[in-house]
Structures are given as structure tokens and as C-alpha cells.
């Protein structure tokens, strides 16, 4: 707000929301429609959560015209940011709010998944708690279904309650076409082309459990969603050296000799 320090109170008020949205660190927020902000039904219960509630609301809705000292203005400004964040969590699960956040998601405003196998999948902001001051905002990847911390320290300070725990799931319910195709690809530790013994044994066990799960799903007539990827994996498997029996033979070879080879080749 330093750039508006010399402006009059009316100028200061009229620019508040534009300033807030365009400020560095607030890129995750979308602009809340004025009609939504002026509807008291949408603000139910927030007067008990925000200090200087009425002054903060006047500032956010561009009708603040009081003469106040710098200390008081700073407190009202802090309350206005908090109020906007709490209203934002409610607004982004409405039809208009979801549409605005969907556009940001498509543009990659919230960042991309750091997991290599996710191939730069776009992320969505989310909270781990709907209560303010409980946790900071996280970023959700719909491909690996994991959450990450924002890269920027500015974004790391945003309260997770300003996005809530349901927003990202509601968005994919409303826009199912945005749900990315899940993948079962995973990194395989190797030494000179051979899978590391301990990891290979663990992965075989995990693959067996996965196959069992798929069989149970197929028995119930449910689509596993992995058929196309399995065909691709089978084609890639045709070019690999040896079959399953030979892989077992390699594993047995590493176990021979008092465990010396097994000790050397570990993850």
C-alpha cells in the first residue's frame, strides 16, 4: 500500500481490490464479484472472525471514507486482507468462482508438479484445514494425487483456509474433462541397466498387489483405467533382455556368495 500512501482516502479505497489482486504474492487469488461481496448472506458468520469487520468490509467494497491514523489504517488493512481471504474460500466454489480459477489452472498460474513422471502437470491451491491460521496453502497435483509446498516464500505465507479443503475436488467434479490421466509409471533404480536387487524385490511385491487389485476391479466389472498404459508397457517389454524367469535368475545370482553381492548392490 506504500504507492497509495499519498492518495486521499477515497482514492485509496477505490483502488484497494485492484491493488490486492495485482500485488506480488496474491497471484493465487481471483477477483471476487462486487455483487457477491455486497450480499450479506455470503458473509454470514465472518463478523465474529474478523477484527474491525465493518471497516474492513467498507474498504474491500470501496466505500471506506473515514479519516484514520496510520496505525488504525494498518489494522483495518490487515483485517481487510483476512476478510477477503475468508470470502474468497466461499466464492471459488460458486459457478463464477470456479470458472475464474479454472482459467488460472489452465494457464498454469499455480505452478507445475515437481515430480518428473507427472510431466509438468498443472497444480491447484488447497488448504489442509478450513479454519484460519491452522496451516499454509499447499498445491495439489491431480496426476500423482500428492500435495507440495509453493516455491515462492510469498505464496508460502498464504493461509490455506483462503482456499479450503474442498475447492480442488469440487473443480474436478464440475469440470471432469480437466482430470488428468493417472499413471502407474515409476522410477526404477538401476545399476548398468539392471534393477537394484532390494528395490526390484519390493517393486515385484507391489506389482503383484496392484495386479490383484486390478483383477478384483475387473471381476466387479469396473474399469481400472490402466489398460492403454499396460499395452504400451507390454510393447516396451518386448525389447527388454530376458523374461521374468531370467530376472529371477539375476536376483538369485546377486544373492549367492554369502550376501556379498547383495550388500554391494542396494538402493
From TrEMBL:
Matching Pfam families: CK_II_beta
PROSITE patterns membership: CK2_BETA
Gene Ontology biological process terms in this record: regulation of transcription by RNA polymerase III
GO cellular component: cytoplasm; protein kinase CK2 complex; UTP-C complex
Any GO molecular function: protein kinase regulator activity
Region (Disordered): 222-253
InterPro entries: Casein_kin_II_reg-sub_N, Casein_kinase_II_beta-like, Casein_kinase_II_reg-sub
Top-level taxon in the UniProt lineage: Eukaryota
Gene3D superfamilies recorded: 2.20.25.20, protein kinase ck2 holoenzyme, chain C, domain 1
Composition-biased stretches (Acidic residues): 226-253
Record text on subunit structure and interactions: Tetramer of two alpha and two beta subunits.
Function: Regulatory subunit of casein kinase II/CK2. As part of the kinase complex regulates the basal catalytic activity of the alpha subunit a constitutively active serine/threonine-protein kinase that phosphorylates a large number of substrates containing acidic residues C-terminal to the phosphorylated serine or threonine.
Membership in a protein family: Belongs to the casein kinase 2 subunit beta family.
Listed name of the protein: Casein kinase II subunit beta
Gene designation per UniProt: CKB2
Amino acid at each position: 500500500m506504500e504507492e497509495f500512501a499519498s492518495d486521499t482516502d477515497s482514492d485509496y479505497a477505490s483502488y484497494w481490490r485492484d491493488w490486492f489482486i495485482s500485488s506480488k504474492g496474491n497471484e493465487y487469488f481471483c477477483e471476487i464479484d462486487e455483487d457477491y461481496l455486497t450480499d450479506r448472506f455470503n458473509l454470514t458468520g465472518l463478523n465474529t472472525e474478523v477484527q474491525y469487520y465493518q471497516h474492513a468490509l467498507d474498504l474491500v467494497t470501496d466505500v471506506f471514507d473515514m479519516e484514520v491514523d496510520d496505525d488504525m489504517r494498518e489494522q483495518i488493512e490487515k483485517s481487510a486482507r483476512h476478510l477477503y481471504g475468508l470470502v474468497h474460500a466461499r466464492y471459488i466454489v460458486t459457478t463464477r468462482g470456479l470458472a475464474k480459477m479454472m482459467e488460472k489452472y489452465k494457464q498454469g498460474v499455480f505452478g507445475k508438479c515437481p515430480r518428473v513422471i507427472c510431466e509438468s502437470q498443472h497444480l491447484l491451491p488447497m488448504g489442509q484445514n478450513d479454519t484460519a491460521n491452522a496451516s499454509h496453502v499447499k498445491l495439489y497435483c491431480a496426476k500423482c494425487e500428492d500435495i507440495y509446498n509453493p516455491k515462492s516464500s510469498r505464496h508460502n505465507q498464504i493461509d490455506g483456509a483462503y482456499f479450503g479443503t474442498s475447492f480442488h475436488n469440487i473443480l474436478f467434479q464440475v469440470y471432469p474433462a480437466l482430470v488428468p490421466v493417472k499413471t502407474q509409471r515409476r522410477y526404477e533404480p538401476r545399476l548398468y541397466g539392471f534393477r537394484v536387487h532390494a528395490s526390484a524385490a519390493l517393486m515385484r511385491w507391489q506389482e503383484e498387489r496392484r495386479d490383484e487389485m486390478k483383477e478384483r476391479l475387473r471381476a466387479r466389472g469396473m474399469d481400472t483405467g490402466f489398460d492403454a498404459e499396460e499395452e504400451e508397457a507390454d510393447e516396451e517389454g518386448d525389447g527388454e533382455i530376458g523374461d521374468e524367469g531370467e530376472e529371477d535368475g539375476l536376483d538369485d545370482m546377486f544373492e549367492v556368495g554369502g550376501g556379498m553381492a547383495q550388500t554391494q548392490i542396494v538402493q
